[in-house]
Structures
1.
Amino acid sequence: MEITYLVEEDIIKEKPKKENKLVGILMMPLVIFYLESATRFFCFGFSVNKSFVFILLFSLSFGLLLSSVIMLFKKRNFVIGLLLLLLILFYGFNIVYHSIFHSFFSWSTLFMATDITDFYREAIAGVIDALPKIITILIPLVLFLLFKKKVRLFESFSKKHLLVFVAAFLSATLTLSLITLIDNNKKQLLALQLDYSEVVKSFGLAIANIEEGRELIFGAPKIEVKNPYDVIITLSNQSDVTLDIDRLIFYNTLNIDFDKLIKNAPNDTIKKMHEYFSLNPASDKNDFTGYFAGKNLIFLTLEGFSSEVIIPELMPTLYKMATEGFVFTNSYSGQWGGSTASGEYANLTGNFYTSASCLRKSASTNTYSAMGNMFKRSGYNTYAFHNWYGTYYDRDSSHPNFGYKYKAYKMGLNLKYYWPTSDYEMATITIDDYLNSNKPFHVYYLTLSGHTNYTWGGNNMAARHRNEVQNIGITNENVKAIIACNMEVENMLTYLVEKLDAAGKLEDTVFAMNCDHYPYGLPDAALAELYGLEAKDIRANIELYKNQFILWCASMEKPIVVDTPVAAYDIVPTLANLFGLEYESKVITGTDVFSSKENIAIINTLTGSGGNWNWKTIQGTYYSVTRKFVKSDNCTLEDDEIEGYVASVNNRVNAMRKYSMDILDYNYYSYLFDSNGKPRYSKE
C-alpha cells in the first residue's frame, strides 16, 4: 500500500517594516513653520534674520504640543485634517486681510464693526488678489489627504508620547527664555506697543495673536522706560512765566500742582506718570498765540487722503487752501496700527495709540485733550458729522465724549446710500446745524468718499467724477480713480466756502484738515506714480507718509510757510495755541509747532518693513531699522554731537510712546482734571 505523506509547507511571514513615526510627530511643526514662512514671504518679502529663530522655535513647540494632543484621539486622521483646515483658514484670512489693508487683523476689533465684514467689496477684491497665495498655503492639506495612510503617531500615554509633550514644553521654555534676553525695544514690540504688523514680522503671526489674546485677558505687561527729563531738576516746579534776557516767556499751562499729585498718587504707575509729565517741558506762548482767537473752526479728517491728489485745475478750492494758508512742508502721518480709528484719534486728541480700540476706550475715559472738549470749554458750540454708520468703531460713544453733538449715517443724517457715501451731500444737509450759531462754532467732519477701493466699480464717487479726470496726463487707472473720488472733498469744501461767504462768516472761519492715513488701498505701482517714488519697497519709504496738514483762513493776507517737522498728534496743541485756548501743554503728547520746544515727528510705516519709531526733527531724520541718522539742511549739530543727540531723542520717543498709550489705558486725565477740565490740584 502506497502511503502519501502530505508535507505542510512552512508559511514564512514577512517581518513588518519598522514604522518611522518621527515623520508623523514632526508633521505639525513643519506645517506651522511652512505657514508662518509663507505668510512672512507674502506680506514682507524674502529675508532671513533672527526672527526666523523665534518662528522656528515656536513652530516646533506648538507643533509638538498639537501632535501630543492628537495622540489622545482614536480618529487621528480626522483630527489632523480638521487642525490643518483651521490653521489654513487662520493664516489665509490674515493673508487676505493684509492684501486689503496692508496690516493684520487684530482681535481687539472683533466686537467692533470690522473692515473685512462691513466692506464686502474690498473683501472680494482681497480674496481675488490673494488667490495664488491661498492656493500655496493649501499644499500641506493636499499632501496630507494624499498620504494620510502613511502618517503614524505613538500610542496614547506611552513613554514616547510623554517625551513628545516634554519636548514641546522644553522648546516653549527655550523660546520664552530667548525672548527675555532681547533688548528693551523688542520687549515693547512684543507688548504690542508698536504697529501690530511689526510684531508679526519680528515674532510670527501666531505669537502675535497669542500675545494679543493674553493682553486682552490679563492686560499689557508694564514696560519701564527711562524718564528723559529726570536730570532737569529745576523743571519740576516750572513757573507759568520765565524771565528771558530779552523777554518774558509765558507758557501754555494751568498751574497744576504736580508735587501734590505725586504725593497722593494711588499707585506706582500713576506716580511715575505724574513724575514724567511734571518734568515734560511746557510749550511757550509765542507770536502765533491767539492768531485765530474767536474765529470758527471746521476740522476735517479726510479718509485715505493724500495731498498729492490735488490738481489745481480740478480742485481750485483745495489748492487755494493748501497754498495760501499755513503751508506745512514737513508734515507726516505715520501709521499707528489701527487704520482710520488711530489716525482719527491722533488728529482729535494730540495723543496716539496703536490699535483701533482707542475710540472704544475713549468712550469711558476723561478726554481732556480732545479738540471738541477744548473748544467747548472755551464757549464754542461743537458738532461732529460722519457719513457712515455711527456705531462703527463705537464713534457714537467716543465722539460725544470728545465734546461733540454727534450725527452719522442713519443717526440723524439721512444720506442716499452709495459705496462710499457722498462728502458733498453730507455738507449740504449739515451746514444749517451750525451756520447760524449764536456762538462761535467748531465743526468736525470725518469724510468717506476717499475710501478704497480705487477703481471705477469699487468706489461710486470715483465713478461719479470719472469723466473729469480723463485728460489730466495720468495713465494709471487707480490713480485717476483716487483723484476722481476726492473731487467730492473739493465739492464739499467749495460748497461750505460759498455758504459761509453768503452768510458773512467766511473770513471768521478757519479750515483745517488732515488725513487719517495714506491711501494704502492703492497698488504699489499706483502709489509710485502718485507720489513720484520708486515702487520697490515703497511702503517702507518714509516719504510715502508725508501728507500735508492743511490750515487756511480767508482773512490771511499771505501764506506762512512752516518747515518744522509735524505729526498728526501736533495738530491739537498747535490749534489750541492759534485759537488762544487755555490748556495744559505738559500732558499732551504733541507739541505746538510754533513754540520753541523741539518737535519730534514720529513716522511709523504701515507694514513694518520700513521700521517703526523712525523720527524727524529740525536737525534730521532717524531710521530705526538701520539706526542711521541723516542730517537735514538746517542741522546745527557737530559730528561729535550726533550720537548723543540721537540717544537723547530716542529716549524721548520711548517715553512718548509709553505715556501716550498710558494716558488712555489708565484714564490718566481723570487724575488731573474734573469733568469740566479744571485741575484737581492747583499751586497756591
2.
Amino acid sequence: MTPFPIRYFAFFCAFVLSFFTVATGFAQTLPPGLRSEYAAYFEASTTETLPIPAPDVKLLEQEDAQLPVQNRISAPVSVNIQSNAAGSWVRLPDSTQVWQCRISSEGALALIVLFDRLRFPEGGFFYAYSPVNGKVIGPVQAIHLTSSGKFTLGPIPGEEVVLEYHAPAYTRGQEDIYLNRVDYAYHPGALSPGDVPESTGFGASLNCNVNIQCPEAADWQTQKKGVARILMVFTTGSAWCSGSLIANTAGTGVPYFLTAHHCQIILSTPIFDQWAFDFNYEFASCAGGTIEPTFQSVVGCERISWRAETDFLLLKLNPVPASYGVYYNGWSRATSPATTSSLIHHPKGDVKKYSRDNSAALSHPNPINWGGVFGTSPANTHWTVVPDVGIYEVGSSGCPMFNQDKRIVGQLHGGISNACNITASYFGMFHISWDQGSSAASRLKEWIDPANTGAMTKDGYVPPPNPVSISGSVKAWWGGNMPAVQVVLSGSAMDTVTTDTNGNYVFTDLPAGGTYKITPLSKPLVLNGVDAYDLILVSRHILNLEPLDPAWKLIAADVNAGGTVTTLDNVDARKVLLGSIPQFPAQKSWRYFPASTVFQDPTNPFASLPNEFIELGNVVQNTSGVHFFGVKLGDVDKGANPGM
C-alpha cells in the first residue's frame, strides 16, 4: 500500500497548551503575586529574575528538517532551581508565606516548567503565570501531586514565568521544590498574536468538530466521563493524544487506560511519571464559548502492555480522585464489525468532541505503511470508518472507537484527511489486541480479565472507590520513639489504633475521598521525666537568666496550657511533683503536635501553636508521613522516657 503523507496522520506531535489553567478574572483563584491587596508586599521583595539560556534555534531547525515526523516545537533546557536556594519569601498579613521565583529565556515564545520534585503539604497552593499577560496555571494542590514528585506546568506564553508557592501558616520548610528542566518554545508558528498556539490546545480544532454537549452526542453523556486528553512528556518535548479508562471483568477500580501505541513513540523516551490525563475538559453547552473550561487532572502513569500491530497501549493511571466522577467504559472483543461507530476525543488538545460513522465498519484488507519508526500494520488488524458526524484531528489518536452498544472495539491509529474532509481512518482492533500478543506485556486479556473468565463483552461502570490507608508515627520532639500511644481516627470513618515499638501507626481500609482527623491521646504517667531540676530551669527562664530553647521546652513548661510560661506553671508543677494534685491543670501528661510544625517566632511558640491533631481532606490515595511530635509537660530537660 502506498505510504500516506505523514502530515495527514492523527499522530502528529502537538504542542502543549495548558495545564490547570484558570480564568484570571476570578480573584479567588489568583496567585497572591497578582492580587492587588498584596502588591505592596511583593514590590518590597528582592526577587531576581533567573536567566535561562536559550537553545541554538538554528541547530534545532536543522535537526527538525531531518525528523519531520516529530514536528518539534519546544526544546528542553536543563536547570537547577530549588526553593531553598533561589527566589525569595514574602510574609503576608495572615502569617502565610509565599515563595516567588522568576525565570526568563530571551526569545522564547513560551516556557514549560518541569519539576523533578514538587512536594508540599495539604493547604499549600502552587502557581505558574506570565507577569506580562497574566495567564495563570493553577492552583495546583497537594491532591494533584505525584508520589514520585515529578510534575509539569505549561506552556506559559512569553519569555518570562513567575513560579509561586503559597505556604499555609506554620508549614514553612515542608516544601520540596526542585525545577530541573525548562522547555523553550521556539517554532515560529507555535503561537498566534493572541498567545494561543495555532496548531493545538483550547480553541484550535476545526469548526467542523462537534462539541460533546451537542444533540448529536446526547446519548453519550455517560461514556464521555471515561475519556481524557493526554499531555505526554518526552525527553525531547511534549505531545497530545486521547484515550479512555476501561472496565475490567472483576469490576474493580484499577484505573486502566487504553490509548494508542504510537503515542509513546512520537518523540524520544516517554517520561510516564509526568504524563497528565485531563478529565471533564469540555464546554457546558453545544455552543461552546471563548473561556477555557476547567478540567480535572491525574499526573503520572505506569505502562502495562502494548503492541505495534494493532497500535494499542494500556496504561495504569495514578489514583483518580472520586470527585472527578469518571466512568470506566465497557468493551467488546467480538469479531463482527460495528454497525455504527462513535468517537469521543480531544482534537489538537481542544475540548472534548464527538464523531460518528452511520455505516458499518470494515476490516481493512491490506497492510498499512505508516512510515519511519511507526512501521507497518498487518492486513485485517484495523477497522476502517469514515465519520458522517464530526471529524478527528491530530491529538485524537488513541481515542476509543465505540460500537452501537457503547462498547470499545478499537482505538484510533490514524488516517487521511484534508481539513474537514476525512477519506480514511483506521482503528486497531480490540479483539486482536486481546490475546494475540506473545505475552501479558503485549496483550490485554490478563489485565482486563484478571480471573480469566473468558468474557466476550463487559459493560461500563462507575468505579468503586478503592480503600485507602493513613499512616505515620508518634515520637518525642527530641526523637525518641513512642510506643503504645493510642491514636484516634474520626471523620468519614472511626477507629483507634496503638503505635508499635517504633512509634508507628496505620489505619487501613478507609473509604476513599473521605475527610479524616487523626488525634493521639495522652499517656497517663504524669511524673515521667519531671523532677526538681525542671523546676529550676523554668525558674531561670522566668527570671530571664537562661531562656528555654528550643520552643518545645516552652510548651513543656506551660503545664496549665495558659499560652505563656509564668510562676503559676512552676507552682502547679511543684504540686504534681509533691503529690498534692494528681494531674497538671492542662489535664494531660503529653501534648502532641504535627511534626511538620515550624514556629514563626521560636521565642513565643504560643502565638502560632497548631492544633493537636492533623486533618486530611478528600483522601483518595494511601497517605503516609502523618507524623506527630510528643511534648511531655513539666519535662524541660528531655528526661522523660518516651516508651513509658
3.
Amino acid sequence: MKENSGMIYDDVKKCVDDVISYIGKDITYAMTLALGKPVLFINELYSRAKKDPEIKLKIITALSLEIPKGSSELERRLMQPIVDKVFAGVPEFDYMLDFRAGTLPKNVEVFEFYSKAGSILNNPEAQQHHLSSHYTHVVRDAIALGANVFGELISYREIDGKIKYSMACNPDICLETIRLFNEKKAKGEKVLVIGEANKKLPFMYGDAVVEAENYDMILKGPQFDYELFCPPKDSVSLSDHMIGINVSPLIKDGGTIQVGIGALGDAIVSGLIMRNEHNALYQEILEKSGIKKRYKNLILNWGDTGRFEKGLYGSSEMFVDAFMQMYKSKILKRKVFDSIPLMKLINSGKLAPDNIPPDIIDQLLEMKAVHRKLKAKDFAFLTEFGILKKGLSYEDYTIIDGENRYSADMNKEKNRQEIRKLLGKELLKGTVILGAFFLGPKSFYQALNDMSEEERQLFAMSGVETVNQLYGGEELRTLQRKNARFVNTGMVATVFGAIASDQLENGLVVSGIGGQYNFVAMGHVLPDARIIIMIKSTKGSGKSLKSNIVFSYGHCSIPKHMRDIVVTEYGIADIRSKPEQEVIAEMINIADSRFQPQLVEQAKKAGKLPLDYEIPEEYRNNTPEKISALLKPYQSQGLFPQFPFGTELTEVDVSLVRALKGLKGLAKGNRSKLIKGMALELFRPIPKTAQHYLDRMKLLHPSSTNERILRKVVVFALRSANILQSSENPLPLQASTRVESK
C-alpha cells in the first residue's frame, strides 16, 4: 500500500477489506480514548473478527464510551427516556456490548489503560487486561504490544482552498503515534493510520491541524457524520460545592488552572464564578466558613479571593465544559503565546496582549530576540504575532508598506522611530487553553461549532506529551504555566499525604492513573505551582460509611514524598515541606469528625503524634450537618444548585435519580431499615405528590403484581429521600439569575 496516501473511502467494508489484505489477520488495533474513536470502522473490523476466527484482533484503547443501560428494571425505566433524548443518533461500540454481555469471541482481546471509574471492578477479564500506563507512556506501551493499525475520529474543512483535517477532540496520543508509525514505515514495517471524518466534530486548531497525507485511509461521507457521544452532567451535591469553595481561594488571578470532568470540576468552577461575579456573597461565605481565618497565610502567599482581573490560562489534558463556563464568565481569558521573548515581556508587565507598546522593537532588540538588522525570519516573527501590522512585505532588509519603504536596519535611532508607524494594535495567535482531548455535553460541542474560526483558535489542542509535561519545551512552558494550580481527584488519602486514585488496596483497578502523576511531577518542578488533590471525606452511608482519610492504605498512586495540598469538604491541608507530625495533624483536621478519634489513636500508637495531642476545637465539628447549615440558606438565592451549568434532565428525572441512588445506598448500608420501611410502605396509600413520578416511570397504573411492587419501591425511595415532602418547593437545578451581590 502506498505510504501516506490519504486515500478517501466512502465504504467502510472496502476500507476494512484493504486493511486486512495489507496487514494480514493478526491485527493489533490502537485507537484514542473517549470521543476520538472511529466508531463505524472499529465496528466493521470487530464484525470481521467475530465472523472469522482466524483473525486475531487486539484492541488497545481507553474510555470506551457506553450509553447507560441500567442494571435493574427500575433503572431501565428511569434511564430509557433519558437515553432516547440525550443519546439519539449516537452509535454504540459493538465490541463493548459483547464485552459487557460476556460474549466477546476468544480471538478478540480488549486492553484499556483507563476505564470509567468503577465500571470494571467486577470484571476479571478487564482487570487482567488493564494496562497500567501513564498517559504520556501509552503510545510507547501500545507499540510494544504490537500495534500495527491506528484509528481516530477527525474533523475537516476547507482552508485557503484546500481541505484540511483536524485531530479535533484527540490529538493527545495521535500526534506521537503517527510520528512513530512513520518511523516504522521507513523501516519497511507494515502499519496503517485510519481517519474517520465527521463534520459534526468541532474543527480545532493548535497542533491538531494536519494534512490528509498523515492518514493512509480516510473514511468520509454522510454516513460518518453521526451524532457525538455527550455524557450528561453529574449532579453536584452540597459537599461537592463545599470542596469547590475550599479550592477557589487557592487559585491565583493571572495564573494557570487544570480541572477535570464531573461534579467536582463543576463545583470548582461554580465557586470561581461566584468569586468573580458575586464577590461580596463569596467573601461572606469565606468568613462564615472560617476559610479566611484558618488559611489566611496560605491564601495570602499562594491564592486570591478577588475578582479575576487578569484571568486564568487553562493547561489541562481534558478540555471540558468547565473551561467553557470559565470562558463565558470571562475568567479563562489570560492569553499565552508560543514565544519565549513575548512571554517574558508579558510576565514582567512590559507587554500586554491587547496593547503593543511603542518601544516593543527596542525591547526585543535588548533581549536579542531579533537581529539589529532585521532578517526575513525576524520579519516573519514580528508579523506572525501581530507586532507589525498586516499587509507588509519584506525584501532585502527593507519593509514595504504599499508605496512606502522602511529600512530594517535597527542600528539607527531614526529607523527604530520610523518602524513604530508599522506596529500592530494587539498580539495575534494567543490562546487561552491548551488541551489534549475534549469531551462534554451537547451544549459544549455546539458552543465550539458556533464560534467563529478566529474565536475557536483561542482553544488550542496538542499532544499529551506537550500538555502533561515540561520536557522538550521547558522554558516556554514554564513561562506560560505561571502560578499553575493542578487540581486532581483522589479516592483515598492517608494521614501521611499519600493518595490512592486508580486502584483499591486489594488490587482491583477502579479507573487508571491517566495523567495524574505527570501533573503532580510538573507541579513540583514549576517554582510557583501547587498541586491540589480533592478527596471526599467519606464514602458509603449508614453502617457502610467509611472514611476516605485513613491511617494507611495498601496502594498509592501518588506517594507521600510528593504530597502538596489536599482538600476535602471540611477544609484544606497544606502539607508540602512539613514534618510528619504537622502533616498528620492537618490531614486529621480535614477528616470527618466521626473518624477523627480513631485516626488520632492510630497515629499516637505508632508514635507519630505526641500522646497529649488533641484536635483543635475548631476542627472537631466536621459533619454533613455543618455544611448543610452553612450552604442551604444560600440556595434560596440561586447559589449551589444541583446542576450549576444546566442539565438535559427534568426536575422529575433528577428527583428519581436521587431517590433510587439513595435506595441503593440504603440496601448496602442499612438493610434492616430498608426491609422495615418497605414492609410499612406496602400498607400505605399512594400519595398524590408521587403520581407524576410514577407516571414518568410508567407505574401510575400498574398492570401486574410485579409493577405494583415496583410502584411501592419507587414511593418508598421518594419518601426516604424526602422528595415527596419537598416536591412543592424543589431545590434549584441550575444557577439562578436571582443571585445578588451584597
4.
Amino acid sequence: MKIATREIVREIDRLTIEKYGIPGLVLMENAGRATADVLLDNFAYADKVAIFAGGGNNGGDGFVVARHLISEGLDVDTYIVSHPKKYKGDALTNYKALVKIGGNIVELKDNLRKYKQADVIVDALFGTGLEREIEGFYKKVIDFINSQGVPTLAVDLPSGLDSNSGHPLGTAVLADITVTFVLPKLGISIYPGVEYAGEIYVADITTPNILEEDIPYELLSSESVVDIIEPRYEDSHKGTYGHLFILAGSPGKSGAAALAALGAQRSGTGLVTVGVPKSLNPIMEEKTTEAMTELLPETDLETFGLVSLDRAMEIAKEKKTAIAIGPGISTSQETREFLYEIIRGSELPMILDADALTLIADNPKVLNEAKAPIILTPHPGEMSRLAGISTEEVQADRIGVALDFSAKYNVYMVLKGARSIISTPASEMFINTTGNAGMASGGMGDVLTGIIGGFLAQRLDPVDACKLGVFSHGLAADLIARENGEAGMIASDVANALPKAISQIPQMDEHAVTRIR
C-alpha cells in the first residue's frame, strides 16, 4: 500500500477538489462517516462518546463523526478548543449542521473541568498539517485525553504527531485506533509514530485512485512481495537458482560467514560458495555442510587484503551470479584496499554489510565507481558512520537519511531497525512491517545479508531482492515468536524458518493496516 507525506496529502486534496470537482464538503462527510463506522464496529458497548474538536478541518471531521453517532442513538459531547467564530469553510458548515440537529457542543474556554466521563474519546484536534510544537491549552488537552484511561480513536492522525517524521511535537495523543484517510501517513508508518497510532484503518473518501499511482513510497505487506516469488519448475537444477559468492570471516568471526551462508541457502539459492582467509578454511568446513568453501590468500593478520584480490576475482567469474561481502571481514587497512578493488572491479550485483560498511565510511565515493548494482544494509550506528552524522540524527530522520544516501551514491539501502526502510537510487522508499523485538540478537544481520544476497544470486532485481529479503526475514522471526516467544530467538532460528515463511506469503491475508470503503 502506498504511503503519503503531508505534502502528498495536500496535493491529492487539491487535485481532487480543483481538477476532479469533488467538493471538500463531500470528502469531509465521507471521512467523518467512515470514522463513525469504525468506532461503532470496534466499541459496540459505548453509549457515551466525547469528541475533542480543533479549529480546522480535523475539527470539521469531528463534527461529522458526532452527527453520525448521534443518529445511531449514542450520547455525544463535542468539546471545542477553538472559539466558534474561528471556524470557516467546510468545518463551519458542519459545525452549523451539528448545532441545528441539537448536538451538545461544549466550548472548553481553557476549562477541562467541563468534561464529562465517556466510554470512548475521539481525537479530532489536529490533522496532517501540524508542524509546530504543541503548547499552552492544546498541550493540556492532549495530556488530559491521554490520562483518561478510556479507548481513544484518532481522526486521520493522532494529534501532536508530525505526519512526516512520526515524532511527537512536544506531546501527542496515544490512540488505540487511528482512522486515516486516502492513504496511511508516513508518520504513523514508522517509529515512534507506530506506537501512537494503534490499530490503523485507511478510509476511502472517494479521492481518485489515479492520484496515488506515482507515489514512490510504499508500506510492505504480503501483497507487495507475493508476485516477486519465483515458481520452482520441475525441470530445473541447482544452477537455475544462482550461485552466491560470499566473502566473509576473519579470526574470531567465522560464525558471521556461516550465518550468511545459511541465510542464502534457506532463501532458495542453488549454490553458495564462502570465500574465507585460508587459515579459517578448516573451521568453515566444520561449520558448513551444504555450502562450498574457497580458501583465499591472506595477510599476516589472517584477513583479506590485496594479496587475496586476484583469486577472489577469479572465483567471482566462475559462474557466480552475485556477491555478498562484509560479515566479519575485519576493518584493517589491507582489507579496506581489498574491498575497494572488489567494488571497482566486479561486474556482479553485490550486497555489502557489517565490516564492509565501516570500511566504506572512510570513503563512500568508492560506491560511485561500482560497475554493478550495490545494496548496503546498515544498522543505525553503521549508517551514522556512512553519513557522517550522529546515530541520534539518523534515528530522527531515518527516511531522509536513507533516501539522501541512496541518491548521492547510487546504491540500494536497507536501513535496519524496527520498521526497516528500503531506499533506492530512484528515490523510492519501502517500509517493512514484519519482525519483532526477538530479532535484537547477534547474527541477525549476517543472516539477512545471506538472504538478500541469495535473492540477488537468483537474479532478482535489487529492489525486489531487498523487499522480499527484508519482509521474509521479519516474517520468519514472527513465525518463531508466535510459537516460542521472542526471548531467546537466535539468528539461525530465523534462517531455518525462512522456507516456511516464504511458502506462507501467497496464502497470507495479513496487512499492517485495514482498508475500509
